[in-house]
Amino acid sequence: GLPVVLVNRAGASNWGDRVVADNAQAGQLATRVLIQGGSTRLGCLVPRRETYSVSGRAKAFLSSAAKRGLPTEILYAEDQGYEDARVGVNETNRGVFDRIDGLFCSTDLMALGALDALRIDLGISVPDQIQVLGFDDIEQAKWGSFNLSTIRQDIDAQTDTVVRLLIERIADSSLANRVERQPLAAVLRGTTRHDG
């Protein structure tokens, strides 16, 4: 059959090999970044429409915070985009923002929407009052108006792994299906408190 490599897709599959971001590592890393910046009361912005990778990293973050005994609020957006996140944050009970001082957003697009809602719509100072951390390190995260701290997936390394798995599968179609987890790294910019 045709060799297939799935990227950031759920569970065991007969469809072929998988290359995934390590959701457990993502949750632990996000928690650590916010704690190191001084946060002790966390929030997590999640989409109501669940997907393996986005929902998985949010659940891992909530689990990591719970293991550390940190109170955590869940904020909701309808979906994973900028506008959904901005609307979701604006529709959140204002008391929540008095109870959190660090917010993890499941995607950078959601983080950008949350940033504009917090800073522009609600007048909340980021990172002074609430730190904001995204996930993906999309191009817009680097833009000066956002300067978003985030967690980076190494897309080049993912691509190399996908190509390698395809070549190995073509050479030996009898290989058992494999799952390769890709490492993640924090990219600290202006929406979290940190040295440097």
Model description:
The chain is of the alpha/beta class. It is built from 6 helices and 9 strands, in the order E-E-H-E-H-E-H-H-E-H-E-E-H-E-E. It has helices spanning 23-36, 52-67, 82-91, 96-99, 108-121, 155-171, and strands at residues 5-7, 17-21, 42-47, 72-77, 102-105, 131-133, 150-153, 179-182, 184-187. Strand 5 (102-105), helix 5 (108-121) and strand 6 (131-133) form a beta-alpha-beta unit. The termini are far apart.
Provide a short characterization of the protein structure.
This protein is an alpha/beta fold.
Please give the structural blueprint.
Layout lengths: L4 E3 L9 E5 L1 H14 L5 E6 L4 H16 L4 E6 L4 H10 L4 H4 L2 E4 L2 H14 L9 E3 L16 E4 L1 H17 L7 E4 L1 E4 L9
How far apart are the first and last residues' alpha carbons, in Å? Answer: 51 Å
| Helix content percent band | 25-40%
Radius of gyration: 18 Å
How many strand segments? 9
| Sheet of most strands | 4 strands, parallel
Computed structural class = alpha/beta
Key features of this structure:
196 residues; alpha/beta; four-stranded parallel β-sheet; three-stranded parallel β-sheet
